[in-house]
Specification:
single chain; 397 residues; alpha+beta; Dodecin subunit-like; Double Stranded RNA Binding Domain; 3 domains; six-stranded mixed beta sheet; 13 helices; 43% helix
């Protein structure tokens, strides 16, 4: 009998060891160091800008190199046109750290950098160690949180200087992951109560206006409610406790174009002698779940922006004619680095709105518009935000 038990225990130990072997191997393969080169164009003698572009190009090359180890080459060749939107956006590669090995000029206006990058194959959403690097590539976007909270219908927080329970817990979790926030006290003195109500009820224009007024690039807004739970187990009632259920509905909205990039709905329960304390604990639990879910979804969007490109809006003013718009639109794609596709959304009189798919940031596109020659047109940049530009188009005599 003892021999049988010993053999069974030994067998379980062997199975456990065998099950751990793939895990160890996967951990070893989770990171890959690659050496790659990137280039940037020196415009108007701005070598610092060229270095930033070269580093961004090198980081992308590092990701592409690791993707090449995950996807068969014939698949990449056959799907070359859709690699940007389908393969890289689904890849598990991201850059954890990098260091510059060499920097040299190639000709008069080309800067080349060589970097050693540590690329993680694991999904970025499940490991946020590189979030700081990703956020720096995105230009360190700032956030603001605005949540209407009802706790057992006795506490109703809609518009106040101090943060409520849900807002505080959301900010604590998000700040621990590297997100930065605007000064709430300054912002709440500027925005109007009616705009806050409208935004919480789903008005995207109001939400966009609040985010712009606050200076935040991303607004997290929504509702949080806690109320006594139904179908409470008898053991909870017998202990003299009240079970409270909290529900959160939140949206993450880009300030410059009003686009919703992430949503989350979370529920959590807590039991306490005092209903208000129980509601507070339930709201805190639900807020932590919501923060984790929003982080994953926001990072997923930003990862796609950094590695495969994003969409920015360009509003063009003072267009002489529709023929001039067509001509300038074609020049944009030919002359500006990083412009992949252009979609015309509207044209009214002398104003047009374009959605432009770019690899890079809106500020980089703005710099090229100002520094490059678009004869017979002269471009004047009026406003630059993280995802939008406003420009004026003038035709030279």
């Amino acid at each position: 009998m003892k021999k049988t038990i010993s053999a069974a225990i030994f067998g379980l130990l062997v199975v456990g060891i065998l099950l751990r072997i793939p895990t160890v191997a996967q951990q070893v393969e989770a990171e890959q160091s690659v050496i790659v080169k990137g280039v940037g164009v020196i415009l108007a003698g701005d070598e610092a800008k060229a270095e930033d572009d070269a580093i961004a190009n090198a980081l992308r090359m590092a990701v592409e190199q690791v993707v090449g180890t995950l996807i068969q080459s014939d698949v990449l060749v056959r799907n070359y046109q859709v690699v940007e939107s389908n393969i890289y956006s689904q890849s598990r590669g991201y850059v954890k750290t990098y260091r510059i090995l060499n920097k040299a000029r190639r000709g008069e206006n080309i800067l080349e950098v060589t970097i050693e990058a540590v690329v993680k194959k694991s999904d970025l959403e499940s490991d946020l160690q590189a979030l700081g690097l990703l956020m720096s590539r995105k230009g360190m976007p700032r956030l603001m949180v605005l949540v209407e909270e009802r706790n057992i219908d006795e506490y109703h927080t809609l518009f106040q200087m101090d943060m409520n329970t849900t807002e505080t817990e959301l900010m604590n979790v998000l700040m621990s992951k590297g997100f930065t926030f605007v000064d709430r006290n300054v912002v709440m003195q500027k925005i109007k109560r009616d705009a806050v109500r409208a935004a919480i009820e789903g008005d995207r224009n109001s939400a966009k206006a609040i985010a712009l007024e606050s200076g935040a690039e991303l607004l997290i807004i929504g509702k949080a409610v806690s109320k006594p739970a139904s179908n409470v187990p008898s053991v909870v009632r017998q202990a003299g406790l009240v079970s409270v259920q909290a529900t959160l509905n939140l949206r993450a909205i880009r300030s410059d174009d009003g686009r919703i990039i992430a949503t989350t709905t979370q529920q959590a329960a807590a039991a306490h002698i005092d209903p208000l304390n129980g509601g507070t604990r339930a709201l805190q639990k639900a807020a932590r779940l919501a923060a984790e879910d929003l982080t994953r979804k926001i990072v997923q969007v930003w990862q796609k922006d950094v590695y495969t490109g994003t969409t920015i809006q360009i509003r063009i003013l003072d267009i002489p004619s529709y023929a001039d718009l067509i001509r300038f639109r074609n020049m944009l794609k030919s002359f500006v680095r990083g412009v992949n596709n252009i979609y015309q959304r509207e044209f009214t009189g002398t104003v047009a709105l374009l959605d432009v798919e770019v690899t890079g940031k809106a500020s980089q596109i703005a710099e090229e518009l100002v520094l490059k020659d678009f004869s017979p047109y002269r471009v004047e940049v009026l406003n630059v935000s993280q995802n939008a530009l406003v420009i004026k188009l003038k035709r030279e005599p």
